[in-house]
Amino acid sequence: MGHDAGALETGSVRVGTLLALGRASGGFHTDGIWSRPSRAGDSPFDAAVGMSVGFDNWLIPKSLNVQPSANAAYRSSGSWQVGCFVSVSASSENGIRDFSSSEVDFPEQHGGGVPWRGTYQGVQR
């Protein structure tokens, strides 16, 4: 929204794909962009195509992850952009939050062996 009159300044729609193979991932995207022209005669519409690549590098398995990634895009107005990033994430829960409940025995692992799924002692959970 514009700061002067509450008018919409810009909007965009992105359609894309993501492919993950092991620890590597990549994707392509297309953007449709509308923005209020800043100069008379500028087109309010623009489009962009781009790609990104990334790699998961677990320094401490399921606890400390360093993920380098890069992306690039070309806009129909003739401009381009390139970005390089390094994401660092850490978990004190040994990565448990990264798995669905059907893949791990949580909280059985931390709950003294007390089951939490299914039926036991006549109780449906």
Quickly describe the structure.
By secondary structure, this protein is mainly β.
Q: How helix-rich are the residues, as a percent range?
A: under 10%
Distance between the termini: 47 Å
Average pLDDT, to the nearest integer? 77
**Which segments are poorly predicted (pLDDT under 50) over 5 or more consecutive residues?**
119-125
Radius of gyration based on Cα positions: 23 Å
Strand runs, count: 8
The proportion of residues in beta strands is: over 45%
What's the total helix number?
Answer: 0
Shape descriptor reads: elongated
In this structure, how is the largest beta sheet organized? Answer: 6 strands, antiparallel
Could you say which structural class the secondary elements and strand pairing correspond to? mainly beta
Order of helices and strands: EEEEEEEE
Structure description:
- With 125 residues, the chain is an all-beta fold.
- Helix content is 0%, strand content 53%.
- The protein starts with 9 loop residues before the first strand and ends with a strand.
- Strands 1, 2, 3, 4, 5 and 6 form a 6-stranded antiparallel beta sheet that branches. The protein has a two-stranded antiparallel ribbon with strand order 7-8.
- The chain contains no helices and 8 strands.
Keywords:
single chain; 125 residues; six-stranded antiparallel beta sheet; two-stranded antiparallel sheet
Topology, pairings included?
Elements: E1 10-21, E2 24-35, E3 45-55, E4 57-60, E5 64-75, E6 80-90, E7 119-120, E8 123-124
Antiparallel strand pairs: 1-2, 2-3, 3-5, 4-5, 5-6, 7-8
